[in-house]
Amino acid sequence: MKAVKVKGLYFTYNGSDVLKGITLEVEEGEFVAILGPNGAGKSTLLKCIAGLLQCSGVEVLERSIQEYSRDELAKLLAYVPQRIIPGFMTVFDMVLLGRRPYMGLRPSRRDIEVVTSTLKKLDISHLALKHSNRLSGGELQKVSIARALAQEPKILLMDEPTNNLDLKSQLDVMEIAKNFVSSGGTSIIVMHDVNLALRFAERFIFMKNGEIVADGGKEILKPRLFEEVYGVKVVIHEVSGVPVVIPLHKHSLP
Ligand SMILES: Nc1ncnc2c1ncn2[C@@H]1O[C@H](COP(=O)(O)OP(=O)(O)OP(=O)(O)O)[C@@H](O)[C@H]1O
C-alpha cells in the first residue's frame, strides 16, 4: 500500500511558489530522506504531508488527507517539527500528549505503559518528572520524538530531528527511525547531514527551488548531483563499506 502519495502539489506563501508541482509516492516500509539546500521547500512539503498546511493532492494510506479527522490522522501519522516550544509541564506529560487521540478524559493503563516504554526506548526515563522548560536542546528534541512515537503512528515524519543532538544521540535517533521502519512503519525525514542520511535511509529525494531534482537509492549519489543541487564540489569515498560525501575545500563552482 502507498503510505503517502503527492500529486502535482503546488504551495504558495505570500504569492511566491514554494512547491512547484511535487509528485511523489512512498510505499509502506520505506525509509526516505529528503535533502536539499536551505529554502528548497523541504519543510513545507513535510508540513503538507502532515496535514499542517492546507494543500490539495496529498493522500495518506490511499485516502485524501482531508477525509481524515484530526484524531484519525494522528493515529496514522506523527510529525516531529524542527523545534518545539517547551511548556510548563513535565516530560512525562508532554509525551502523554502523544496519546491524546486515543484518550478519553483520563489516560488508560495502556497510555501510561506506552509513554513509559517510549521514554525508556529513547533513554530519557530519568527526565520523566523534569519540567520541559528546563531541558537542554537535545533533551527537548528527544522528548519531541518520544511524543511522536507515543502516537504509535504508521508513518513518522521528522524535520531535521538530529539537529542539536550529540554524536551518539544522532545515531540513536536514526537507529530509532530505522527500527520503526523495520517493524513495519514508514519514515520520511528531512535532513541536512547527507552522510547520516546515507548510513540509514534507503531512498533519497533531493529538492531545489520547490522541485524534486533527484529521487532514488544510493546509486544516484554522484558528485555531479551535489554540484547541481548545492553548487558544491564533493568527492565520495567508501569507508567501511559506506559511501561518505566529502565537500572539497575549494568547493565553490565557477
Ligand atoms: N510561514 C512562512 N511564510 C512565508 N514564507 C515562508 C514560510 N515558511 C517558509 N517560507 C519560505 O518558503 C521557502 C521554503 O521554506 P522551507 O522551510 O520549506 O525550506 P527548507 O528547504 O525546509 O529550508 P531549511 O533547510 O532552511 O529548513 C523559503 O523561501 C521560506 O522563506
Automatic annotation (TrEMBL):
Family matches, as InterPro entries: AAA+_ATPase, ABC_transporter-like_ATP-bd, ABC_transporter-like_CS, P-loop_NTPase
Superkingdom as given in the UniProt entry: Archaea
CDD domains xref list: ABC_Iron-Siderophores_B12_Hemin (cd03214)
Tagged with keyword Aminoacyl-tRNA synthetase: no
Coiled coil: none
Pfam families given in the database record: ABC_tran
Keywords: ATP-binding, Nucleotide-binding, Translocase, Transport
UniProt GO MF annotations: ATP binding; ATP hydrolysis activity
Domain ABC transporter: 4-234
Cleavable signal peptide: none
Name of the protein in its database record: ABC transporter ATP-binding protein
Organism: Thermococcus argininiproducens
